[in-house]
Amino acid sequence: MTTSNKPKLWSPGDWNAFFGFGTNILVNLLTLTALLRFVLKLPDSLVFGRILPATGLMLCLSTIYYAWLAYKLAKKTGRTDVCALPSGTSVPHMFVVTFVIMLPIALKTGDPVKGWEAGLTWVFIQSFVLMIGGFVAPIIRKITPRAALLGTLAGVSISFISMAPALNMFLTPMIGFVCFTIILLSWFGGVRYFRGIPAGLVAIGVGSLIAWGSNAFGLNYGGMSLAKLSASFSNFGFSVPIPAFDHIFSGFQFIGVILITAIPFGIYDLVEALDNVESAAVAGDSFPTTRVLTADGVVSLIGCCLGNPFINAVYIGHPGWKAMGGRIGYSAATGVVVILLSWFGIISLMSSLIPVVAISPILLYIGMLIGAQAFQETPRRHAPAIILALVPHLAAWGKTQIDNALGAAGTNAAAVGLDKLGNNGVLYHGLDVLGGGSIVGGVILAAVAVFIIDRKFAKAAGFAFAGAVLTFFGLMHGEKIGIGESPVVAASYVAVSIVLLGCAKFATATVTPAEEVEADLIEEQPEPAT
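The structure assignment produced for this chain is given below.
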């Protein structure tokens, strides 16, 4: 059905969605600003003068594009309840590119700008994975178990998203723990705050009040000071993004490390976007899948070429914004506000007003949500496979902690000696092998486990053999791309594949299949009281 009536660009419910979604975007902007300034220690001139203006432009292009898609859908169908897809900087990727790519390279080279350049190259490659993969994503999604994809994301969420914020929270618990409780009460407990003010905004406000109020008693919770607030005004000014092609190509010197995560995370993005498009379709808004999948790649590439090291993604939560009354205008309005905040240096002022520890609980919540999703959205019988998917990420995180600690002491694992570390219970080489390429490793190990649980041994063998190939070329169980990387581990995967093929041909069931056990457990549940 096609109608000539023009859809409304703004509806009353867009106000609710605008403040809720806008707060979400603001929190993410403050978070990535804190990562750039305090983790990577990039100069403010680079953060506020180049990176944030590029990020703002990317977000504006994304939100306006999805508002346009919603407008087209509303005009085509004649419906007045079409809601634009939410989008923005991918939060999991924000931490992955910071802690897995940019920070290690910045520490290794002693130059945070090199880390930023590696981040640009990471997004550059991943953008093309997104654009090209839009045509193959359905195949990947079809053959890979959901538990494997969500399980490896849960591993990232626990190790590289949740741990640092959680530790930071309890270094300043008067702010961190209180703000965390405010968020849990609303987002998990269903508590509604005064006039529907978003919980993230309430948490940030309370945390800021505690931080600034503590100064009156000489406690200085949160590190806020008038001197920092005054200095933030120096970043005011009008800055537009400028091309950063030379920095992108400079980052190619770290291509071996970058490919290990850029390709698998690009693949995950495709699957996640497919899930979110399907979620919107269930809510009544069917958007063209290929356009949505490739748009994130194009928009991310534009942002990358102007200096933004963070990927764009379609957000989960479309049904929630729609239920809140969001339609077309909330998305476009958010993009316009982001441009104003990032191009005029206003983020600098907000960063000096809001303590980082007030934002940390929001990040821990996101980590909890992503981790829980792996168990909630997959069959219960696949829970062991999800746990297996976590292990490579824990190994990678543990190795990172050891490397950073030894680096702070002016030494490294090789200098200390792997034997000495092993004698003290630190299996450093094991962490290195298991944690190398943990994104891909988590997917492969979990997929093998899922198909073993389901007694689909031939499929398990196929994933094990894929693991052998990926390991041989360094995409997992290694720290760089190459030929003949980790050959013993690759051979082990081949051996596992042979064993699984033998089971596919000769094995007989000696126990009740997992599906039947799960069905029995469900049937044995008592009827709810009436």
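Interim note for the steering committee: The longest strand covers residues 87-89. Residues 519-530 have pLDDT under 50 and may be disordered.
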